Structures are given as C-alpha cells and as structure tokens.
Amino acid sequence: EFPKLPLWQTDVNSPYVDWDPLAAMALRGLAQMTGAEIAICTGNRAVGLGQRALGGLIPVVGVAQNYKLKRFPRCDAGFGPTQDLVTTLQTLGIPAASTFHIPNMVRIPAPLPKPQKPVPVIGSMGRFVEKKGFAHYIKALGALKRSGAKFKALLGGDGELENDLKALAKAEGLGEDLTFTGWVVDKSAFFAQLDIFVLPSLHEPFGIVLIEAMAAGMPTITTDSEGPREIATHGVDALIYPMGDAAALSKALNDLLQAPDKAAAMGAAARARAIETYDINAVGTRMDSAIASILAARR
Fold it and tell me: What is the mean pLDDT of the chain?
C-alpha cells in the first residue's frame, strides 16, 4: 500500500503536470518514501515529470508508445514496444545498451467458443479518426459485397468521423450488412462474435488491439503499418496488405472466407504467437531482465 502524499494535491492529468513544481515535489516525495529504485515513465508528459522530479536520484526510463519523443533524449534508458521504436530511441542518443525491446502485453483469455453462424462475421474496432483507416475497411466491405460474398460486418468505436463513415457505408450499399456497435467495452464479447478481425490502420506504432485479437485466436488481416508488420507474419498468423489499399483488403477477406480451414489454422497460430511473445508473464520476464540491467549499470 502506498503511503499518503503530503498535504498538497496536483492533477496528474493536467497538460502542465510535467513542469508543475508541486507535482514534481509530490512524485519525489513518493519515490523517497517508498524507496523506489527506478522510475518507468510512459509518454512525453510522464517523462518530463520524471526527469524534473527524479533526475539524478534514480534512473528515469522512458517508454515510447509512439514517435512523439521530444523529452526522451535525457532519459537514462528507454523501452520500445517495437524494434523500430527501439532504433528511434537510439537515434535520439540513448545508448544501445540502455534501450530495450519490451512489447506491450495482454492477459491471454480462455479459448473463445465457436458458435455456428448463418454467414461469417467480419469485425474491426478503434477510434474513428483518419489514421485508423476505417474508410478503407468500409470500401473493402463494399467491394466484397459486390463480388457476391455473403457476410455480416461490425465496426466498433466512435469519434469525429462517425457520421462520415456511416454515410460511406450507406453509399457502399452496406446498410443491412455493416453494424456500428458503438464504443466496445467488452472486447472479449466483441471478438466472440467474429470470424475474421481487420486492423486497417494507416499509422500504428504498435497495435494493442492486434495482439488482443491474436490472443483471442482471431484470423486477422492487418496493414503493413509500423507495429503490425513486426508483430504479425504474413501467411502464418495473419494476412498483411498495403496501407490504404481497399482492393487488397477485399481480396484478403475473400481469400479467408473461401478457405475456412486456412483461417482457423491462422487463428490458432496467432494465439500461439500471442502466448509466446505478448502474454503478461512473458513480457514481465523481459521487463525484469531489463530493469536488472539498468540498475546494475547504475551501481
């Protein structure tokens, strides 16, 4: 149990928290009271606060979840969930010996039931913003329908492009075939409805939803964006297609719909990959090793 902080309070979600002196004092006091040996900070704001409060006291490790890394060069070490982000940290001046490939992690769920459905169900989810590529997903579904394929589709999420995406779905003739589910709270229940999961992102530094789908045993189709092209192996545990290519996505979907045995094998391989590489225990072991290395270097 963490000890209570001193009498001041600070809003850790404030955009100014990284230079707020009260926040820095509170964090430094907490580190001293708990005997902390290392600070692991995710993102620029947390890194800025960690450096201000704890620099020189204990090692500050920056976790790079994207490519916005303005404050990272002063970190004592860095974690990157992909090798590409690890390399990026090194180009900022963090020594190779102090940068570590620590993937994001998931808890592996129990195997999903496979209920019989009248037609296969395709799904995707995320924030409705341009970089998530959902317009290309909808266009691919439209092309798939025009080819004569029988399916139902789900799109979970919400955001600024919701009305535009619904209008596009109508224009593609998907009114009866594509359901907008709203924001997905229970991802396991969402995956349980699907036969194929699609990640159509145009920019994806990692792609946690991809490893969640793999952990659920989903046959998955993903773009060759930054994170997914490291996570998945084309033809083994996923199909990978070029970003923004709706025609290629439509073909990949049709390939899996026409080969259910291939899709099932791909889903099983994806789950095995998630267990081996992205399970919380496997990643935890890698993180323990990295932390031990950073502390040994410090001593």
Answer: 92
